[in-house]
Amino acid sequence: MILSECISGQWRCFVIPEDVLREAVSRLVRRFRPHKVILFGSQARGNADSKSDVDLLVVCPLGGRRRRDMMVEMDLALNGLGIARDIVILTPEEYERDREIPGTIARPAFLEGKVLYDRSA
C-alpha cells in the first residue's frame, strides 16, 4: 500500500496518521474486496490541515446492492478510527469510463489521487 511518497528527496506526510489510514484500507479490503482504494482530495495533494477529511474512492462491484447502502456499510466499517471521511463508490466500469471525463469524481482521483490498494498489483 502506498501511504506517502518521496518528492525531490523529501517524504511528504499526510496529516492523517499512516497507521489509521492503513487500518481503514484494511477494513475496506477485508469486508468489501474492492478492486482499488484511492485517496484523493487535500490528503492526496499534501495540502490537508487538521480540519481536512479523508476522501476515498472505492472501485468495487456493487454485486446487486444499492450504492447508497454500500456507502453506509463502508462508512460504518470505518467507525472508531477517529477520522472524518467521504466515501465514493464507483464500479470498475464507471471508473474506467469516468476517469477520462472532466467534471467527474473519477477524474481528479485518477490524476492526483494516491492508490492505497490495487488488487491487480
What does this structure look like?
This protein has 121 residues and is of the alpha+beta class. It has a single domain, classed as 2-Layer Sandwich (Beta Polymerase, domain 2). Helix content is 36%, strand content 23%. The strands form two sheets. A four-stranded mixed sheet has the order 5-4-3-6, sandwiched between helices. β1 and β2 form a beta hairpin. The N and C termini lie close together (10 Å).
Q: What is the helix tally?
A: 5
Q: Segments where pLDDT lies below 50 for 5+ residues?
A: 1-8
Write the H/E string, N to C.
Answer: EEHEHEHEHHE
Strand proportion, as a percent range, falls in: 15-25%
Helix proportion: 25-40%
**The CATH topology, please?**
Beta Polymerase, domain 2
- Count of domain modules: 1
- Distance from N terminus to C terminus (CA atoms, Å) equals 10 Å
CATH architecture: 2-Layer Sandwich
Structural class: alpha+beta
Radius of gyration: 14 Å
Please state how the strands of the largest beta sheet are arranged side by side. Answer: 5-4-3-6
In CATH, what is the class? Alpha Beta
For the record, what is the CATH homologous superfamily label?
Answer: Beta Polymerase, domain 2
Shape: globular
